[in-house]
Known about the structure:
The chain is an alpha/beta fold.
Amino acid sequence: MKYKNLFNILKVLPLFLLIISCEGEEGSNGPIIIPVEKVQAAFNMSISSSDSNVLLLDNKTVGTGEFKSEWDFGQGGALVLDQPGIEEIRFDTDGTFSVRLIVTNDAGLTVDSKTVVVDNSSGGICPNGICASTNSAILKDAATTFFVGNITRASRVNGGGQHTEILKTHFSSITSEYEMKMDVMYPSEGNYDFTAADAIVNFGVDNGINVHGHALIWHNATPDWVKNFSGTNAEFETMVKDYITTTVTRYKGKIASWDVVNEAIDDGSGNPLRSSVFKDKMGDDYIKKCFQWARDADPDVLLFYNDYNMASSPGKRTAMFNIVDDLGDLVDGVGAQMHISYNGPSASNIQAVADGTVSRGLKLHFAELDIRANPNNDQTSLTAARADAQKVKFKEVVKIYNSIPLDNKYALTVWGLKDNESWLIDFWGHIDWPLMFNDDYSKKPAYDGFLEGLE
Ligand code: G3I
């Protein structure tokens, strides 16, 4: 008897093995899924450039043998057989839809599914499911107790267009991204070039926009002739004093504040003063000398020490507070750059920058805020999840800043207007979306986050 049963099992075994091998895994009470190496449903989708309520669907399924592709456009109704070329589907009603491509062969099926979000008040189908903000609030009007800043360039203040209009509409302070640094304003010994700086300052004065001067002394924006200065150390010091005096005097009454020294602290162990031609030729007290000369040139201008990683590096933060403590009455404020990410530094570390500044009775400038959504380069496009996390971080930073006492408030400056203008893309060599406006100047969820931080 037992041999007969064994024979019967052996007789049907090949068929059973064949079903398993070509039919793939039996989902737990679900459909039989075709093995990926056999066929894998896949499609790309994009928004029509001529109609933002039209979705373009491109079947990219690859596989072996015969298979059938059918669409479920997520709008109800029967499956639609895939046609050669691009499918164009209208989505006119607001909502969230699941678009599916179902691919079947005689062994089973495979599905690719993507979510489509439609918000007609934001323009129709939302790119990557991220709907542009329709919030009409004006940033500088919503921030009633401090300047809302952004950066600019001579080409942009003179260029007109959306960039200039958004700058004038939403921002109450401007910072020159690079044209008010020594390498641009003092390109050769005895030869100043204030052309770009004048354009930016005049734009601010003409439009009632606060102008923050950035930055008199920075090792990264030092002209070669200064780096290779051939005179004595005493002659070097005289040259620096003349440069600071000339520049600050020129903009007296027009520029409200200066970053006198930028990024003087080294990132290495113990965060000593960074080596630079200024430190090497003028001594460790070069910072105090520069602040004194700026103070002498314009007793009314606010003088800031500016640096980065103030939140993420407690050691650097301590070193910075030691510098400003040593400066005494020569310094009016701390510039914390705030080049951060959606996932850090923590709110408590950001708060520590504010607390240390406030406890010293100094002004706080969150000076260069951008919030990377792709710090680990694991995204090729901004996802809804990252956009929302970035929004939450903007809200957190603004809330911390807005919560400091009025006397310690100065400005919160965002380091760029629209994502594709950000320095971060070249600096890190990969795509990111760190700012509040999309490349088409539409407002991102981050914009709403900024406003929510003011509530
Ligand atoms: O616009 C000119 C272009 O006409 C020219 O062809 C090209 C090549 O010479 O240069 C272009 O200007 C460059 C400018 O960025 C605009 O792209 C300057 O050379 C370049 O030096 C400048 O870099 C700036 C950098 O500081 C150095 O000044 C960045 O825009 C600016 O975002 C960056 O900002 C710094 C802060 O000042 C301090 N904190 C860190 C932050 C990021 O590095």
